[in-house]
Amino acid sequence: MNTPPPHAGRTKADSGFRLVPFAVTFAVMMTTWVALSGKLDIFHLSLGVISCVIVSLFSSDLLITATTFKGMPGLWLRFFLYLPWLIKEIVLANLHLLKLVFHPRLLDEINPKLIQFRSRMNDDMGLVTFANSITLTPGTITVSLSVFGDYVVHAIDDASAEPLPGEMEKRVATVFGEDHD
């Protein structure tokens, strides 16, 4: 009987130390350390270097999951083009909730529900981005996401539930190079 290796899909070469993900993770963390601490003396900088090296050794494969950087600039460009649309949706959802909260018949207007659906996306980062986008939009919270793309989302009313998965899923799929027309 053939049993898959503990990390199916990863080869032994992938499980070792990789310099580029380590360096990128270290640079991001060290920049964050300096920006948040504001301390530039040798003591604090050395603590930052030691801490960032240790954390980068253990977690560089979490921040940089791609084995190649081919296509990354395009992905980041598409992501930054997605952000204005997401911000617009967040503002509109905030206005909707503001109207809902101050409605004289609030208890008649809200209709909390759990919505279940399966996304057609295959990219893990796309699935997580979609889940986070749903949660960032007021009136909806992603309660559960499976590795197969099964979502459970709580919506406060019918108007918040109606557009799911819809346009947001299509836009996130476009960011991650998947076609959902």
From TrEMBL:
<dbReference type="GO" id="GO:0008324">
    <property type="term" value="F:monoatomic cation transmembrane transporter activity"/>
</dbReference>
<feature type="transmembrane region" description="Helical">
    <location>
        <begin position="42"/>
        <end position="64"/>
    </location>
</feature>
<protein>
    <submittedName>
        <fullName>Na+/h+ antiporter subunit e</fullName>
    </submittedName>
</protein>
<keyword id="KW-0812">Transmembrane</keyword>
<dbReference type="InterPro" id="IPR002758">
    <property type="entry name" value="Cation_antiport_E"/>
</dbReference>
<comment type="similarity">
    <text>Belongs to the CPA3 antiporters (TC 2.A.63) subunit E family.</text>
</comment>
<feature type="transmembrane region" description="Helical">
    <location>
        <begin position="19"/>
        <end position="36"/>
    </location>
</feature>
<dbReference type="GO" id="GO:0005886">
    <property type="term" value="C:plasma membrane"/>
</dbReference>
<keyword id="KW-1133">Transmembrane helix</keyword>
<dbReference type="Pfam" id="PF01899">
    <property type="entry name" value="MNHE"/>
</dbReference>
<feature type="transmembrane region" description="Helical">
    <location>
        <begin position="76"/>
        <end position="98"/>
    </location>
</feature>
<keyword id="KW-0472">Membrane</keyword>
<keyword id="KW-1003">Cell membrane</keyword>
